[in-house]
Every structure is written in C-alpha cells, then in structure tokens.
Design brief:
Elements (H helix, E strand, L loop, with lengths): L6 E4 L5 E4 L8 E5 L13 H7 L7 H15 L6 H5 L14 H7 L3 H22 L17 H14 L20 E2 L5 E5 L5 E5 L8 E4 L6 H8 L10 E5 L2 H12 L15 H9 L10 E5 L4 E2 L1 H10 L4 H4 L4 H4 L8 H21 L4 H9 L10 H32 L7 H9 L27
Parallel strand pairs: 4-7
Antiparallel strand pairs: 1-2, 2-7, 3-6, 5-6, 8-9, 9-10
The structure holds S-adenosylmethionine.
S-adenosylmethionine (SAM) binds next to helix 6 and strand 4.
C-alpha cells in the first residue's frame, strides 16, 4: 500500500492530508509506485493515443483528461476504479463551471475571462469534431459510451486541479492518488519528487508535528492561474500579477495621465516609432514575427516585469545616444537606470500605465470590498462563484494600488535628488535601494554596459 503510517485523510479545504504522528524533515511519507500513477505515458491503446494526439500540447491537462475518462468508463475493470470513484463530482470554484453572472464579473479582468472562454470553446469544438462521432466507430476508445463537452470538462477540471509533472514538463502529467489529496500552501511542509524505479515520493520538507496538515506548494502561481486551474485564490498572494498586452498607445496614455498633460502636438512622432526604439523593441520580442506582447505588474516582479520597465525607459529616452550600448536586458534591469532624469520620467510612465489600468475597471477596489462584505446596507451575500470573481478583480486592483504607491515613493526619492548640488551622491543612495528596500548594485549611465547571461524576458 502507498499509505504510510504518518498520513491520514482529514477534512480541511475539501479533503486533505494530516500527519497522524510527528515526522522528521526528509522523512518519506508516501511512496507511489509507477503502477499507481494515472498517466497516458506508456499507454498501448492506439485509439486513445490517436485521440490524445489531436489535443494541442499546451492543453496537457486535456490529454490526461481523455485517459481519465477511459478509466472512468472501464468502471470496476480499471485498476484506478476506487480512486476515480472517490474523485469530487466537480470543482465548483473553477471558472469553467461559473454562472453567466460570475463570468460577467470576471470580465473586468480579461486575461482570465478570455482563458475561460477559450477553454469552453475548445471543449465544445473538440467534442463536436472528435468525440461525437466515436460511438459505434472502430476508432472509439470509450467502448461505445458517449463522451460530451460536460464530461470532458469534469475530467479537465480533475486534471488541472490535481495533476503533477514531477519529472518535468517534457514528461506527460500524472494523477498521483493519495498525494493529490494534499492542499496548497506557499509555506509548505512537504514536497513531491521522483523516486527510484519510476516511483514518486512525498517527503517532509521540515519537521512536522502530529496533527499538522500536510501541505504542498503547487508552485509560485498567481491568482489568475490558481483560480483558473484550482478554483481558489490566495488573498494578498505574493506572486499575484496583473497582465497587460503591450501597446505603445497605452504607454502614451500612461505618460499623459502621469504628467497631467494635454494631447501631444499633431506633428509629434509616435511613441516607439524611432529606428533605435524599433530595434530595441524587436530585441525585446515586442515587435516582429516572434512577438510576445505580455507585460506584467506584480508583487514579486519588483513591481513590474523587466520588459515593462525597459519599454518605459526606452520611450522616455531623449535620443538614440541615451540608450547606445544598452541591450534589452540592460534596459529592464532595476539597477541600471539610464540617467536620473530618464528614470524619473520612465517611472512616471510606468505609474501612469498602472493608474490607467486601475481607472479602466468599471468598479473601484472600495466598491468590490463593500460587495464582498455584503453590500452597502448589509445587502445580499454574493453567490460563491460571483464572490470569487469579485475577489479576483479586487486582488488585481490591490496589486496595482501597491505598485502605484511603491513607484510613487521611488519617484519622490529620485525627484528630490534632481537638485544639482550633491545629486550624484544622493542618487547613488536612492538607487541602491530596490523597491523592497533590498540593496542593489549601483551603476552609472556612463559605465560600460554589463554583459548579462542571456536569461531573456519571460
Ligand atoms: C490537489 S487537490 C487537493 C485535495 C482536495 N482538497 C480534495 O478535496 O480532494 C486541489 C484542490 O483542493 C482545494 N485546495 C487546495 N489547496 C487549497 C487552498 N490553499 N485553499 C483553498 N482550496 C484549496 C482546491 O479545491 C483545489 O482544486
């Protein structure tokens, strides 16, 4: 049996695992042999493999979902029968199952509502194109049992909320019975790793007392991903982000908002249109056929992603000379400002973009908080799915508010140093403090740009 003496099933956050005795750090709690891991890796069923091959690789959860359905349909003939029988009937917190009201509430944050709609569309189109004609055909892996978008949606929710990729993303995901009853914490006390002979092990990552919940970290995931795949979010999640798509107009609007200026003169060049800017934007993969337009604000990103900072520095550079010799990586490094003046302008632009995003939400953070507390006059309690949607968008607004506060603080620190007397020394002081107050390496704009190790942008 994979069940070790140190674990027992308990009932927090749905079901969970709890230590029934004290465990030492490094102690093996669960060892799951290869034969107890549910995956399509090594499957020899040609019809099923054929169907799985029609699912795009990025939808790895859906590939595994087809295997889960096959086992479910096999019933008592499946070695995973009791495991599948004990899976939840649904994961109501997952937006795939939200009511239209909750989806509307989610639309305030399009990066998530678009993902949800994309998944729904995929479920419907895959079912009609590849599943509806299977019963009675020789290509049917499901023994004549009809499989539709609803049941595929259930299986997808099971895999996205429970599957592990212990051996890395190049290996198919697997469901790990018992281990997958562990709930999530960013301060976990257990970890899962590959064991000998294809087994998977869950071990204590610190000393654990008897009766403590056994918790794993599902990853440093932001709330969008947690809600989309797992159906819950973490308030004040340190890894939460606000995603935006790159668009020069957004930076222009951010600049105007931050500086309180009117529209630029008609003959002003478009932001980002100069040749040196185009070249660096291409290097940042924001232009060209490999373009990836995703930028982010976030608590763990030192407030914004390096590319967002890089764009703001580039757009506020006075001329090509100011960025000469700088790589795209240099431009996005907090510790490598172009100049004091440019840094103030760039941070104002970043703050302007964050402020603009905040004003784009139809409701304010305060309104969301009141709705979550039960409405202005102790109004009706929100249904759970609407509540989750409102909570998600409130968390995003909180991230932006913190970014604004933090950047404002940083700008004030820099702006107070613009007086000529002693400016260099004072500036040196101000930029050696990162947004979180941590010491950063100072470098002047005239020094040779540092070679970076090509980590690239994510
Ligand atoms: C891998 S399963 C864990 C076992 C699950 N609680 C059960 O009842 O089967 C992941 C699911 O557990 C719940 N969950 C796990 N960690 C959570 C947390 N920190 N807060 C809220 N729900 C959590 C979510 O419903 C999530 O989709």
């Amino acid at each position: 049996s994979p069940i070790d003496d140190g674990t027992s099933v308990s009932g927090a956050l749905g079901a969970g695992l709890r230590a029934s005795k004290a465990c030492k750090s490094g102690e093996l709690l669960v060892s799951l042999p290869r034969s107890c891991q549910l995956s399509y890796d090594g499957s020899t069923e040609p019809n099923l493999l054929q169907l799985i091959s029609k699912v795009p690789d990025e939808l790895w959860g859906a590939k595994l979902a087809l295997q889960v359905l096959k086992e479910r349909i096999l019933g008592p003939d499946s070695p995973f029968h009791s495991y599948i029988d004990n899976l939840p009937m649904g994961v109501p917190g997952i937006p795939l199952f939200f009511s239209p009201d909750a989806i509307r509430a989610l639309e305030q944050y399009p990066p998530l509502s678009e993902q949800v709609k994309k998944r729904c569309r995929w479920l419907l189109s895959f079912s009609s194109e590849h599943l509806s004609g299977l019963p009675g055909s020789s290509a049917d892996p499901f023994q004549g049992t009809p499989v539709d978008a609803n049941i595929l949606g259930w299986a997808l929710a099971m895999t996205t909320s429970r599957a592990f990729r212990v051996r890395g993303p190049q290996h198919p995901a697997a469901l790990l019975p018992l281990i997958d009853m562990s709930n999530h914490s960013f301060a976990p006390n257990c970890e899962v790793k590959p064991g000998p002979a294809g087994s998977v092990e869950m071990v204590a990552s610190r000393d654990i007392s008897a009766e403590e919940d056994l918790l794993l970290s599902y990853g440093m995931l932001d709330n969008t991903f947690l809600l989309l795949d797992y159906g819950f979010l973490v308030p004040s999640n340190p890894y939460d982000t606000v995603l935006i798509r790159y668009d020069p107009i957004m930076f222009e609007a951010g600049q105007l908002l931050a500086q309180g200026q009117g529209a630029p003169p008609d003959d002003a060049p478009d932001l980002g249109s100069a040749a040196f800017q185009q070249q660096l934007l291409t290097e940042m993969q924001l232009l060209g056929h490999k373009a990836n337009l995703e930028l982010a604000f976030g608590r763990s990103l030192q407030r914004c992603s390096p590319r967002l900072l890089a764009v703001a520095r580039l757009f506020t550079a006075a001329s090509a000379a100011e960025v000469r010799g700088r790589s795209a990586d240099d431009l996005g490094a907090w510790d490598q400002p172009l100049s004091l003046i440019n840094e103030v302008k760039a941070l104002r632009m970043v703050a302007g973009v964050a402020a603009m995003l905040l004003t784009r939400f139809p409701t304010t953070l305060e309104q969301d908080r009141r709705a979550l507390a039960g409405g202005p006059a102790g109004g009706p309690k929100l249904p759970p799915d609407v509540r989750a949607a409102v909570q998600l968008r409130a968390e995003k607004k909180a991230v932006l508010s913190e970014v604004l506060q933090d950047i404002g603080h940083r700008i004030r620190g820099l702006a107070s140093q613009t007086v000529p007397h002693g400016a260099a020394e004072a500036y040196r002081e101000s930029v050696t403090q990162g947004p979180g107050g941590q010491k950063r390496k100072f470098s002047t704009s005239s020094r040779k740009p540092k070679m970076r190790n090509g980590k690239g942008f994510g």
